[in-house]
Protein backbone atom coordinates (compact mmCIF):
# COMPACT_ATOMS: atom_id res chain seq x y z
CA UNK A 1 0.00 0.00 0.00
CA UNK A 2 1.40 3.38 -0.99
CA UNK A 3 2.39 5.69 1.81
CA UNK A 4 0.23 8.80 2.01
CA UNK A 5 2.22 11.99 2.10
CA UNK A 6 0.89 15.10 3.78
CA UNK A 7 -0.31 17.80 1.44
CA UNK A 8 -0.90 20.52 3.98
CA UNK A 9 1.52 23.44 4.01
CA UNK A 10 0.82 24.99 7.38
CA UNK A 11 3.47 26.99 9.18
CA UNK A 12 5.86 27.42 6.25
CA UNK A 13 9.25 28.96 7.01
CA UNK A 14 11.96 30.39 4.78
CA UNK A 15 15.28 28.55 4.48
CA UNK A 16 18.48 28.60 2.44
CA UNK A 17 18.31 25.94 -0.28
CA UNK A 18 22.07 26.29 -0.74
CA UNK A 19 22.75 25.62 2.94
CA UNK A 20 20.38 22.64 2.87
CA UNK A 21 22.13 21.19 -0.19
CA UNK A 22 25.51 21.63 1.49
CA UNK A 23 24.27 19.79 4.58
CA UNK A 24 22.81 17.03 2.38
CA UNK A 25 26.13 16.71 0.56
CA UNK A 26 28.07 16.34 3.79
CA UNK A 27 25.66 13.67 5.03
CA UNK A 28 25.54 11.82 1.70
CA UNK A 29 21.79 12.36 1.30
CA UNK A 30 19.90 13.15 -1.90
CA UNK A 31 16.44 14.65 -2.34
CA UNK A 32 15.29 11.23 -3.52
CA UNK A 33 16.56 9.54 -0.35
CA UNK A 34 14.86 12.16 1.81
CA UNK A 35 11.63 11.72 -0.14
CA UNK A 36 11.80 7.96 0.46
CA UNK A 37 12.22 8.44 4.22
CA UNK A 38 8.94 7.54 5.98
CA UNK A 39 9.67 10.10 8.72
CA UNK A 40 9.41 12.96 6.22
CA UNK A 41 5.82 13.58 5.14
CA UNK A 42 6.68 14.88 1.68
CA UNK A 43 7.40 13.21 -1.66
CA UNK A 44 10.56 13.81 -3.67
CA UNK A 45 8.55 16.03 -6.01
CA UNK A 46 7.19 18.07 -3.11
CA UNK A 47 10.65 18.44 -1.60
CA UNK A 48 12.01 19.71 -4.91
CA UNK A 49 9.24 22.32 -4.96
CA UNK A 50 10.07 23.34 -1.39
CA UNK A 51 13.75 23.69 -2.25
CA UNK A 52 13.00 25.66 -5.40
CA UNK A 53 10.74 28.07 -3.48
CA UNK A 54 13.05 28.06 -0.42
CA UNK A 55 10.21 27.53 2.04
CA UNK A 56 8.53 24.51 3.59
CA UNK A 57 6.48 23.55 6.65
CA UNK A 58 8.64 24.05 9.74
CA UNK A 59 7.83 20.55 10.98
CA UNK A 60 9.17 19.09 7.72
CA UNK A 61 12.32 21.22 7.80
CA UNK A 62 12.93 20.30 11.43
CA UNK A 63 12.59 16.59 10.64
CA UNK A 64 14.98 16.88 7.67
CA UNK A 65 17.55 18.66 9.87
CA UNK A 66 17.15 15.94 12.49
CA UNK A 67 17.78 13.24 9.85
CA UNK A 68 20.76 15.17 8.45
CA UNK A 69 21.88 15.85 12.03
CA UNK A 70 22.42 19.54 11.32
CA UNK A 71 21.53 22.75 13.16
CA UNK A 72 18.22 24.03 11.74
CA UNK A 73 19.40 27.64 12.11
CA UNK A 74 22.27 26.92 9.71
CA UNK A 75 19.79 25.64 7.13
CA UNK A 76 17.53 28.63 7.72
CA UNK A 77 20.48 30.83 6.73
CA UNK A 78 20.54 32.62 10.07
CA UNK A 79 24.34 32.44 10.21
CA UNK A 80 24.97 33.71 6.65
CA UNK A 81 27.35 36.63 6.39
CA UNK A 82 29.14 38.73 3.78
CA UNK A 83 32.47 36.90 3.88
CA UNK A 84 34.17 39.39 1.59
CA UNK A 85 34.14 41.85 4.50
CA UNK A 86 35.69 39.41 6.97
CA UNK A 87 39.36 39.11 7.83
CA UNK A 88 41.13 35.79 7.28
CA UNK A 89 40.90 35.01 11.00
CA UNK A 90 37.20 35.89 11.11
CA UNK A 91 36.55 33.61 8.13
CA UNK A 92 38.47 30.81 9.84
CA UNK A 93 36.49 31.21 13.06
CA UNK A 94 33.22 31.41 11.15
CA UNK A 95 33.73 28.17 9.26
CA UNK A 96 35.19 26.50 12.33
CA UNK A 97 31.94 27.27 14.11
CA UNK A 98 29.47 26.82 11.24
CA UNK A 99 30.61 23.77 9.30
CA UNK A 100 27.65 21.29 9.18
CA UNK A 101 29.92 18.69 10.73
CA UNK A 102 30.32 20.90 13.81
CA UNK A 103 26.69 21.94 14.15
CA UNK A 104 24.66 18.78 14.79
CA UNK A 105 20.91 18.95 15.32
CA UNK A 106 20.87 18.17 19.04
CA UNK A 107 23.78 20.50 19.78
CA UNK A 108 21.63 23.46 18.72
CA UNK A 109 18.70 22.29 20.85
CA UNK A 110 20.96 21.78 23.85
CA UNK A 111 22.73 25.11 23.27
CA UNK A 112 19.46 27.03 23.21
CA UNK A 113 18.38 25.47 26.50
CA UNK A 114 21.77 25.88 28.15
CA UNK A 115 22.26 29.44 26.95
CA UNK A 116 19.03 30.58 28.57
CA UNK A 117 20.01 29.06 31.90
CA UNK A 118 23.63 30.24 31.54
CA UNK A 119 22.65 33.84 30.79
CA UNK A 120 20.20 33.92 33.68
CA UNK A 121 22.92 32.58 36.01
CA UNK A 122 25.42 35.25 34.92
CA UNK A 123 22.92 38.09 35.26
CA UNK A 124 21.33 37.07 38.55
CA UNK A 125 24.77 36.25 39.93
CA UNK A 126 25.62 39.92 39.44
CA UNK A 127 22.37 41.27 40.81
CA UNK A 128 20.60 41.77 37.45
CA UNK A 129 17.16 40.20 37.05
CA UNK A 130 15.83 38.55 33.89
CA UNK A 131 13.02 41.11 34.02
CA UNK A 132 15.61 43.86 33.59
CA UNK A 133 17.21 41.95 30.71
CA UNK A 134 13.87 41.37 29.00
CA UNK A 135 13.11 45.10 29.26
CA UNK A 136 15.97 45.76 26.78
CA UNK A 137 15.14 45.80 23.08
CA UNK A 138 16.28 42.83 20.97
CA UNK A 139 19.32 44.63 19.58
CA UNK A 140 20.61 45.71 23.00
CA UNK A 141 20.08 42.19 24.36
CA UNK A 142 22.15 40.82 21.50
CA UNK A 143 24.95 43.38 21.88
CA UNK A 144 25.11 42.73 25.62
CA UNK A 145 25.44 38.96 25.07
CA UNK A 146 28.18 39.53 22.48
CA UNK A 147 30.12 41.77 24.88
CA UNK A 148 29.79 39.20 27.67
CA UNK A 149 31.01 36.33 25.48
CA UNK A 150 33.92 38.42 24.20
CA UNK A 151 35.12 39.30 27.71
CA UNK A 152 34.63 35.81 29.13
CA UNK A 153 36.35 34.21 26.13
CA UNK A 154 39.37 36.51 26.34
CA UNK A 155 39.86 35.71 30.03
CA UNK A 156 39.54 31.94 29.57
CA UNK A 157 41.82 31.99 26.52
CA UNK A 158 44.50 33.67 28.63
CA UNK A 159 44.61 30.81 31.13
CA UNK A 160 43.76 27.70 29.07
CA UNK A 161 45.26 26.18 25.91
CA UNK A 162 42.41 23.86 24.98
CA UNK A 163 38.87 22.88 25.89
CA UNK A 164 38.07 19.95 28.18
CA UNK A 165 37.32 17.73 25.15
CA UNK A 166 40.70 18.54 23.57
CA UNK A 167 39.38 21.01 20.97
CA UNK A 168 41.35 24.16 20.13
CA UNK A 169 40.72 26.97 22.63
CA UNK A 170 39.46 29.11 19.72
CA UNK A 171 36.30 26.97 19.78
CA UNK A 172 35.40 28.89 22.92
CA UNK A 173 34.36 31.74 20.64
CA UNK A 174 31.89 29.67 18.58
CA UNK A 175 28.82 31.03 20.37
CA UNK A 176 30.23 34.58 20.24
CA UNK A 177 30.78 34.16 16.50
CA UNK A 178 27.21 33.01 15.96
CA UNK A 179 25.88 35.99 17.90
CA UNK A 180 28.07 38.43 15.95
CA UNK A 181 27.05 36.83 12.66
CA UNK A 182 23.37 37.07 13.56
CA UNK A 183 23.75 40.72 14.58
CA UNK A 184 25.70 41.73 11.48
CA UNK A 185 23.31 39.87 9.23
CA UNK A 186 20.14 41.27 10.77
CA UNK A 187 20.96 44.79 12.02
CA UNK A 188 22.75 47.83 10.66
CA UNK A 189 25.05 50.03 12.77
CA UNK A 190 21.99 51.93 14.04
CA UNK A 191 20.34 48.77 15.30
CA UNK A 192 17.75 48.67 12.53
CA UNK A 193 16.69 45.38 10.94
CA UNK A 194 18.21 44.56 7.53
CA UNK A 195 17.45 41.69 5.11
CA UNK A 196 19.75 38.63 5.16
CA UNK A 197 22.53 38.07 2.63
CA UNK A 198 21.58 36.21 -0.54
CA UNK A 199 22.63 32.59 -1.13
CA UNK A 200 24.67 33.51 -4.20
CA UNK A 201 27.03 35.58 -2.04
CA UNK A 202 28.03 32.61 0.13
CA UNK A 203 31.48 31.10 -0.37
CA UNK A 204 32.04 27.52 0.86
CA UNK A 205 35.77 27.22 0.12
CA UNK A 206 36.71 27.05 3.81
CA UNK A 207 34.33 24.14 4.41
CA UNK A 208 35.92 22.30 1.50
CA UNK A 209 39.42 22.83 2.90
CA UNK A 210 38.69 21.08 6.18
The percent of residues in helical segments reads 55-70%
> How many domain regions?
2
Give the N-to-C terminal Cα separation.
44 Å
**β-sheet strand percentage:** under 5%
Query: Per the principal axes of the C-alpha atoms, what is the gross shape?
Result: globular
**Helix count, per DSSP?**
11
**Quaternary structure annotation:** single chain
Query: How many beta-strand runs?
Result: 2
Task: Provide an overview of this structure.
The chain contains 11 helices and 2 strands. It has helices spanning 17-27, 31-36, 44-53, 58-68, 72-75, 88-98, 105-125, 130-134, 138-159, 174-186, 205-209, and strands at residues 12-14, 55-57. It has a two-stranded antiparallel sheet. 20% of the residues are buried.
List strands and helices in order, with pairings:
Layout: E1 12-14, H1 17-27, H2 31-36, H3 44-53, E2 55-57, H4 58-68, H5 72-75, H6 88-98, H7 105-125, H8 130-134, H9 138-159, H10 174-186, H11 205-209
Antiparallel strand pairs: 1-2
Helix pairs in contact: 6-10, 9-10
Amino acid sequence: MARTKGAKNKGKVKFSSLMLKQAMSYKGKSIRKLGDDSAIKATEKTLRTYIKNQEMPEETLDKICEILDVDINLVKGKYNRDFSKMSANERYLFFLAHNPKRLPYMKQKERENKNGAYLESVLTGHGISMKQYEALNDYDQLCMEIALEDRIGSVLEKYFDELANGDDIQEIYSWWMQLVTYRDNNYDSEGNKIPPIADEDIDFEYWDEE
